Amino acid sequence: MSDFSSIVILTGAGISAESGLATFRGPGGLWEGHRVEDVCTPEALARDPALVHRFYDERRATLTEVRPNSAHEALARLEREWRGDLLLVTQNVDDLHERGGCGEVLHMHGELNSALCAACGGRREWRGSLPPGSACAECGQAALRPDIVFFGEMPYQMERIEAALWKCDLFLSIGTSGAVYPAAGFVRTARHAGARTLELNLDPSEGSLFFHESRMGPASELVPSWVEEILGS
Ligand code: APR
């Protein structure tokens, strides 16, 4: 076993790319086909709720067509066998970490398979399409929206994440461009707190210079071999 005792892992769209889910930036990325300001801001939801709901309905529908890959499964093995502290934070809104076997996943940008009531803040699991104006089962208001953190909104559980970053001795980033804050700043917090920092990515990210080590390649290869390494087997 390695000499680390507390690991924080951040994942981005790149870990799900080999499962067939589109990333955001780069060729064929989601932000190539849609403008963020049209589908991923509170103003867009107020201006054209049908377009925003349709965008997330389409992404939610693709989840039934894809499967977790060996990177998701390797992190589930780590969760089962690692004896130290582990926090898995994902920017992804898909359910592939859970379907790959991870029991505890912190979705800082929300989840496609969840609906949020804009009136009472209640949440419920949601599959299929979510028509604008769907009624909340808790407060009865016609205010359900995709449970997605839009640009300009505060990501979820930031206090818990920050506390874990200050405590960890290893910070691992997998499959993210480092383009969006606060997630893009996690490496600096961890490094400032004295953690070792490692990046596994297909291409250099915007934060690469802040990592002690960057390994370039597909997550489906790099993540399983890193888990082997860290478990010492
Ligand atoms: N293996 C590993 N990394 C990969 C792979 C792969 N097979 N394919 C792509 N990548 C890397 C790319 O090199 C890129 O750095 O994944 C990263 C994907 O970057 P983005 O598309 O920007 O996705 P992400 O970093 O998760 O975006 C962060 O931005 O738009 C918001 O809320 C959205 O959560 C998202 C956030």
From TrEMBL:
Name of the protein in its database record: NAD-dependent protein deacylase
Cofactor note: Binds 1 zinc ion per subunit.
Enzyme class: transferase
Record key words, sorted: Cytoplasm, Hydrolase, Metal-binding, NAD, Transferase, Zinc
Binding annotation for NAD(+): 12-31, 91-94, 175-177, 201-203, 219
GO molecular function: histone deacetylase activity, NAD-dependent; NAD+ binding; protein-malonyllysine demalonylase activity; protein-succinyllysine desuccinylase activity; zinc ion binding
Family per record: Belongs to the sirtuin family. Class III subfamily.
GO cellular component terms, semicolon-separated: cytoplasm
Stretches assigned to the Deacetylase sirtuin-type domain: 1-233
